[in-house]
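[job 0412] stage=complex_fold ligand=nickel (II) ion status=START
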Amino acid sequence: MIFESHAHYDDTDFDADREQLLASLAEHGIGTVINIGASLAGSEASVKLSEQYPFIYGAVGVHPSEVEELTEEGIGRLRSLCGHEKVVAVGEIGLDYHYPEPAVSVQKEWFERQLVLAGEVKLPVVIHSREAAKDTLDIIRAHHAEEIGGVVHCFSYTKEMARAYLEMDYYFGIGGVITFKNAKKLKEVVQYIPMDRILLETDSPYLAPEPHRGERNSSLNLPYVASAISELKGISYEEVVACTERNAKILFGLEK
Ligand code: NI
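[job 0412] stage=complex_fold status=DONE, emitting structure tokens
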């Protein structure tokens, strides 16, 4: 079944129909969901969702745009959430230079602090990196985060950058952007990276694929992403689903 590796079902966009939507995923072939924390409150909400639904697991972490809320006490809260049996990753964490705030120095400080946490609790990381390719890679290397393992969510960089992550055995989260007409660079990357490094993701409620671009996204749209990958790789849709599910189970330690 489809493994959704990155969604934010705690988002208020799902308040009106969260229960019905989540209850309908299995009948549409979605077998597992990782709900990703983007703030301290979001991390706690991820854990709550994972307690309510057997097929949901949680990632806990603070997104680079939200790190101004972090303190050592906040790191302590994340650390205790990491001990929960259904928490499988630290994330999403990273750098986002698209907006001027928070300051680069603040983003770096808390990215590094959360990488250290992931190493301590021995959980893989979910990386958010936007317009910050070099700094992200430098920090990951400086912290030997190749030993922790992880996924670069919504990978948006070049083939050369992809090679650096391949060398560290990282995974690549591929979502709705792959269906966009102007996604030439990402299509090249997907053709370049081996199938055993790819995870399916949506980033719901964001980044809905064609033909639903601009609408609220959900895991129900993942077949569009899997189809696009199957076309680019010249393999069957079923193979894409099976392979990405296996990859995610290995990364997040859910292999039976
Ligand atoms: Ni996200």
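The mean pLDDT is 97.
[job 0412] exit 0
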